[in-house]
Backbone:
């Protein structure tokens, strides 16, 4: 089969104004970025949004084999359009860190992609650059404030704001700045996070309007004065400048699927170090212009899925009508501890051992009150015996089952999945989300409930930094905020090597980070890095431009 980029290059793209017109967006509402992508000026209409059907796509615990969550999201939207439903997919923007690192791009794959894939995976419409610029402009303004107030009571004894870049660069995690004389600033221990971990990225994706964006930026905690008083962006007085940098980026991006369907791609927080969902504005734009909106959350149901339901849905006032859980036989076998070299071979016993991981994810979604469809991304080596076992097992779990072949067949390969989704949505009444915790719970109780209900751990311990932060959170009156746990994506535990469906473990919270602007508390569990490093052989080694075309981008 051809590579993703070869398939993408063979597609005759439709002008973006035609894509917009197909979903009822007038040309005057478009801000084109070339011929095939555009920003959309958009005002949410609650009545239209509430008439649409939101479908969440999540996945089992990721591992080396992958599951194909983004590919499934695109395929499902294409499949829904194939059966006569007006469907739009809403996804996150890829980060350059994974694109040039190990994971690659995030525009789908095979015959279920969003296009133009090179643009989407690289600079796109400049949203990440705008977010990076806003974050680092704020850092520069804060350092400037500190420089001119270093010898008076208005100065800060602690700064908690860090710079960001959209690259994987382990050398920048911890640095010294302001060296070589007082004219260069104040010597400071600081560091960089990756742009998807920036609080401004989270704010960008959780804001419901430009006014809400400004208010959230005003509430960013920057540090503490010598009298322990908190210092916010509103105290620095620069929110207007940051909104100016983000104003155009805040409009959702419209592109197209490989089959000419509309797609909104906007925002890109990671789900292991942030909340892992595309922007509320893009999701609402898709809902307002479709019968069905397919969206995804990062990594497994325990990370992006939990945060989508506990954080994004609360903030946006939305709820999915059904959840699609994506997996493969290879992924299941790896969770059954089958040797990586043997996962393409029939192994029913390995499948039975690994199915416990799938069970945990189904139970996670069901405890939120969600109806679950297990989407098995089918490969040529999957046997009828294995597929039949998974399908029958799903029935016992009270979950639905559908095979997805969208990678190889596009929308045609996802028709059965699409029909299953429509059958569920049209037969059942909307159900409210059963949240894991109440906002009135203490921060400790919120974390404990996530650990015990979602991860199936038994206890939580708090390190010295976390205990100190808890006191500050309570003193600042922020204990009502939801919790966003930053944890490895490869395990329910904080230990990435413990695959499958571990139970009865402890989660240790090293620190609690106040994201008052985003509106949540980040609980850092284990050795989670907010600035990833590159692998031994990064994808950048093979990406090139040949005869004017980008090659080997995936």
Residues:
């Amino acid at each position: 089969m051809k590579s993703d980029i070869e398939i993408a290059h063979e597609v005759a793209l439709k002008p973006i104004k035609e894509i917009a017109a197909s979903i009822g967006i007038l040309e005057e509402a478009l801000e084109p970025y070339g011929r095939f992508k555009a920003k959309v000026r958009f005002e949410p209409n609650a009545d239209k949004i509430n008439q649409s059907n939101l479908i969440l796509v999540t996945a089992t615990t990721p591992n080396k084999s992958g599951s194909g969550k983004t590919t499934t999201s695109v395929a499902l939207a294409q499949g829904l359009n194939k059966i006569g439903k007006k469907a739009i997919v809403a996804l996150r923007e890829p980060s350059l860190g994974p694109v040039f690192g190990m994971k690659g791009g995030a525009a789908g794959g095979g015959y279920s992609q969003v296009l133009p894939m090179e643009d989407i995976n690289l600079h796109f419409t400049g949203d990440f650059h705008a977010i990076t610029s806003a974050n680092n402009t704020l850092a520069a303004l804060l350092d400037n404030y500190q420089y001119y107030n270093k010898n008076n009571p208005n100065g800060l004894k602690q700064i908690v704001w860090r710079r960001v870049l959209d690259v994987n660069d382990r050398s920048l995690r911890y640095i010294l700045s302001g060296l070589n004389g007082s004219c260069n600033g104040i010597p400071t221990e600081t560091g960089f996070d990756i742009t998807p971990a920036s609080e401004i990225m989270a704010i960008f994706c959780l804001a419901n309007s430009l006014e809400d964006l400004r208010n959230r930026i005003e509430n960013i905690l920057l540090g503490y004065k010598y009298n322990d008083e908190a210092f916010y962006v509103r105290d620095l007085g620069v929110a207007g400048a940051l909104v100016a940098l983000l104003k155009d980026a805040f409009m959702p991006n419209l592109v197209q699927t490989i089959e000419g369907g509309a797609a909104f791609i906007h925002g890109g927080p990671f789900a292991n170090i942030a909340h892992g969902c595309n922007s509320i504005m893009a999701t609402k734009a898709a809902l307002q212009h479709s019968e069905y909106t397919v969206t995804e959350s990062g990594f497994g149901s325990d990370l992006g899925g939990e945060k989508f339901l506990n954080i994004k849905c609360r903030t946006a006032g939305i709820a999915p009508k059904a959840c699609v859980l994506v997996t493969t036989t290879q992924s299941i076998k790896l969770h059954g501890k089958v040797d990586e070299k043997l996962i393409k071979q029939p192994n029913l016993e390995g499948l039975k051992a690994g199915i416990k991981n799938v069970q945990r994810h189904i139970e996670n979604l069901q405890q939120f009150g969600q109806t679950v469809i297990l989407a098995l991304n089918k490969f040529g080596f999957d046997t009828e015996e294995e597929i039949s076992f998974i399908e029958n097992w799903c029935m016992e779990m009270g979950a639905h089952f559908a095979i997805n072949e969208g990678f190889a067949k596009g929308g045609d390969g996802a028709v059965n999945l699409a029909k299953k989704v429509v059958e569920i949505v049209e037969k059942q009444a909307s159900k409210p989300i059963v949240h894991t915790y109440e906002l009135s719970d203490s921060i400790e109780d919120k974390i404990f409930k996530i650990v015990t209900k979602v991860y199936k751990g038994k206890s939580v311990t708090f390190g010295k930094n976390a205990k100190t932060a808890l006191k500050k959170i309570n003193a600042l009156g922020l204990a009502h905020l939801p919790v966003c746990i930053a944890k490895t994506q490869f395990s329910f535990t904080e230990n990435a090597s413990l695959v499958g469906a571990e139970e009865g473990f402890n989660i240790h919270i090293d620190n609690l980070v106040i994201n008052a602007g985003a509106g949540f508390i980040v609980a850092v569990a284990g050795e989670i890095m907010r600035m990833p490093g590159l692998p031994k052989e990064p994808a950048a080694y093979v990406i090139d431009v040949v005869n004017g075309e980008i090659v080997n981008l995936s």
Q: What stands out?
A: Residues 127-148 form the longest helix (22 residues). The mean pLDDT is 94. The chain has three domains: 4-126+249-427, 128-235, 443-525.
